[in-house]
Amino acid sequence: MKKRVTLSIILSILGFIIILLFSIKALYIDKFMDADGTLDMPSVGQIGDFIGGFTGTIFSIVGIILLFETLALQRQESKEGKDVFLKQQFDNTFFELLKLHQENLNSLKTYDIIGNELKGRDFFHHQKVYLQDIFVPTKNISMNRKKAVEAFQAVYANHAEDFSIYFRTLYQLYSLIEKSKIKGVDQASYSKILRAQLSESELFFIRYNAMTDIGHQSAHYINLFNILKHLSHFELLEFKDWWAKLNNFERNGLGAVIKEIKYVLKSFLIDKNIKEVEKSYMSGRYTIKLKSDNQSEFSIEIHLNRAKVFTGIHIVQGLDKFTYDEIENLFKCIVKEFIIYSNYNEFNNRRELNFNFDIADPNKIIVGVKNWMSLPIKIHYWYE
């Protein structure tokens, strides 16, 4: 578009220069006008015909170019107008459906042990705490996942109608975003608006619903829009063997550190130039080192120096409540959660992964994973 305008300007200037040059030549060099101001009409006619024919062609070309430019602008304006219409249409549908979702959320209700009514987000929080209280973990993470789904299904069965409406409406909202004709950057914005409406207790139930046969289709949107981004691992039932030993500060602190580790790992698997990141906690009492030579493997090293004395409060102080074996098993489960479970086995082929655990050094734990086919390991998402 800019090239056509520039060409039109150049040709127009060229036409005017030609007219000016031939006018000067006719008047002052060829003397087409005598001393008394009389023009040599035959000569003037010839030069006029030449200028008219030559510059006329130039200006005709300029006119055609500008016509194309006008048509292009009209098409652009038409497209922009269509985009605005589609976005307005999407806005109306999206926010009406979001309003309906909020109404469905507020319709969910239960009662606590003293008879107080709990609605909306309080309903989800109450049900989550109930599940966390009654859940009895085993030492096997796979068994814990199976038991967690069974516990969720028991709660779901008591409120099946309300739960099903809630999850279906949420599914339709994300389906609307994905299938809309709005731009990708706008899709990301709307998905984040919707994600911001979801409490951690809601995310808790969204996760387990996607692990059932009835709700497994929602895993696609959980991965695509990173819906569970703000769900802490230390809220999950299958991690209760660890978080049950912690107070709220320790639980939230270790949850934040695990999120940070996942963020760094995503950087490793995107940026080939990042090879190693090390971070020390509690004045060197604990050091976590992440290594990755290529995008198909990485390792997490946990260095323990419990002889190092630390006084004060720190976000990883909860590790002091775990034995060496418990820390080892925690990070084994975390790595598998990153790579396999959190994305519902959609990102990586489990058969292509080798998990390596090195515990030869009593003060160092190494947990690694490698794709033996040298394919990139994926734990990142389209929308952040």
Instruction: Give the overall average pLDDT.
Output: 84
* Unreliably modeled segments: none
Count of distinct strands: 7
Sheet with the most strands, sense and barrel status? 5 strands, antiparallel
**Rg, please?**
35 Å
Strand order of the largest sheet: 3-4-5-7-6
What's the overall geometry?
extended
Helix proportion of residues, in percent? 55-70%
Provide the structure class: alpha+beta
Beta-strand portion reads 5-15%
SSE order, one letter for each helix or strand: HHEEHHHHHHHHEEEHEE
Alpha carbon gap, first and last residue: 35 Å
Q: How many distinct helices?
A: 11
Describe this protein's structure:
The protein has helices spanning 2-29, 41-107, 121-134, 141-158, 160-179, 184-196, 200-209, 219-224, 240-243, 248-268, 324-339, and strands at residues 109-111, 117-119, 276-281, 286-294, 297-304, 353-358, 364-371. The strands form 2 sheets. The protein has a 5-stranded antiparallel beta sheet, covered by helices on one side. A two-stranded antiparallel ribbon has the order 1-2. Helix 5 (160-179) runs antiparallel to helix 6 (184-196). It contains 11 helices and 7 strands. The protein is α+β, with helices and mostly antiparallel strands and 384 residues long. A hairpin with a 5-residue loop joins strand 6 (353-358) and strand 7 (364-371). Helix content is 57%, strand content 11%.
